[in-house]
Predict the 3D structure of the following.
Amino acid sequence: MTDKKVFTGKIKLVLLISLAVAVVGAVVQLIFGFYAESGHSSVITSDSMGMFVLKCLYAVLILAILLFIYVWIRFNKLRWFSAFISSAVTALIASALLFFIYTIIRVPFSDFFFASLAAVFCYTAYNVSMIFEKYRERKVELVDKASKEEIMNLSIGQAFKPLLISSCIIYLAAVVAIVVSLFTGSFGIARYMLPLLLGLAVSFILSIFVAGPLWIKISRSSSSSSQKKSSGKNGKKK
Amino acid sequence: MKKAGKPISIIVILLVFAFTYFSVFGADNYFGEKRIIYFKDYSDIRLGMDVGGGWQTVYTPETENGSVPTMEELENIKQKLMTRMQYLRLTDYDISINEESGKLTVHHQNYDNNEITVAEAFYDMGQTGLVQICSGSTNTNVLADSNGGIKRADVMYDAVNGYYIRIYFTSAGSDAMAAGTNGVSSLSVWVDGQNVASPSISEAITNGQINITMSSEYEAYHLAGLMNSGSLPYKLSTDTYDAFTPTMGDNVMLTLIISAGMLLAAAIIVLIVKYKLPGIAASIALIGQAAGLMAVMTGFFSPVNSITFTLPVAAAILISMFVGISMAMATAANIKAEINNDRTIDGAVITGYQKTLPGLIGSTIVLAVIAIVLMGTFGFGHSFTARIFSNIFFFGTPVEGHVYYFAYVLFGGVLFSAFMNAIVSRIILRGLSGFKALRRPSLYGGVNND
């Protein structure tokens, strides 16, 4: 059993870099303002913007409830609430970073931004669910032989290679689309595929280096606080 | 799992390739001049404005004294035009209002219809469009009209009658229909005073709905659009009518096709080089998944509508293919690990698939839930999914936009991915592993013992 924190030890570094990207994005946003496309767009212009935002919030709410139920049923034997929180936080950071990527490289916000947001969300959800599934498998085998962090490292390590290779293949497809578009004159593809590509890459890094380690941190802190509570109660009884 | 026979695996491989062929090239036959479509082909996918270009139409409301309509009236016209466009299967569009001139500018995707030109269709759409259902052969005894009495109209299709409209009436409309059709042998349907259908009836309409067979697909969708939108306050005249090129630039489809081909080729090469025989089975399944995505986009079967392909759909394809490739790799890696743990080939294949199954089911559920919620929230007000979730999702907006199509293709893609990876690939590999020549551990990523 390896005790190196290959994957779980990088959370602070990754979050720090994410914060730096967010700060740069916020500064660019403050200086240059919101860059929206006024061209052809069926989703936004067919609805009023307010209605569209309301729909987004509604979709997020329904999704949160349904995924909460799913995580509760599926990962009942793990610390499922911590798993839900860490997955949600990871997806949220990935979505926020996509927003800032759009802001930094000055790509206009259009329908494709919302589709990219949904794509990044799905991609993050898939990667994170694969990691937790691996953890679930490994935990049964190694329950008394290894610590939670060691099992998580092993699980991420096993999920890492197939996810990385599959991701590289779709990144390659996106890069090919960008390069070919420069030769064929379909510049719009390069303009919109680039932020999607960056968003997916960022999402991959977050899924690998943040979701699992964050789950360990949250479950540790919640178990230590519950231990404190129970010891406090015992102390009072004494 | 019982061992699947070698013939079954060969049959499954042939079925995958047949499905791939039909999903791309379709199948049809001519009976005289009538074309019967069995399976739709790639040309049935409608292209959005970003990848296929489109048309710009400027409408001017013909008010009685030439005055500019109020903003409220223009918004009302816009909403009704949106509903009418949805029924022409135009889902990628935008409508902008010029408050000063009172003109409405419509940008929309190309409209391919053998029955009518795009100019005629947009002329029809700009008509006032008051639909009246009358008792007898004249329009003197109106039972229900599109502004009152008609609740909803759906376009239906069957092989015998072709396209027909099912009209649902409000309770007042139902009462009027029941009373007005008692002892009557025919009805007539009128649009702006012109007779468009004269269905005969054998008994009084008392169940609050009626089916009317239409002469063509266009007539059916056009009339249903008029009934569901209600009439416009003014007739609209067409000022200008211009085509525009794809908003993403030239040769967008060529770029996307090269990129998709590269994706599939790279995935197949990596799978086969890295995992050998399990990689071959996974590659065939991956081709099946790509064919499934094509079928989702074309509608595959004749009455199922195709989607509008836009750049967000390309993003959905990317994510679906990622899921398929990742699942295939996870399975092949599990088989390789089992072989290297000294399992027999049969045992390694069975255990490899079994170990991948929980993750496959779990991730499919997560992505399917996300896709369903997006379809329900951003979906077309009359679509199948929107109807199912109409009690949960309160937005009945008739917008079948980019996010809806993203979710629709993603949903189909992940379901095909799960099916191909959990069942098809498994049957193929189990069958292939039955051949004596293919029973060397090195073909499964292990070391040869012999």
User: Anything to note?
Assistant: The radius of gyration of chain B is 27 Å. DSSP finds eleven helices and 15 strands in chain B.
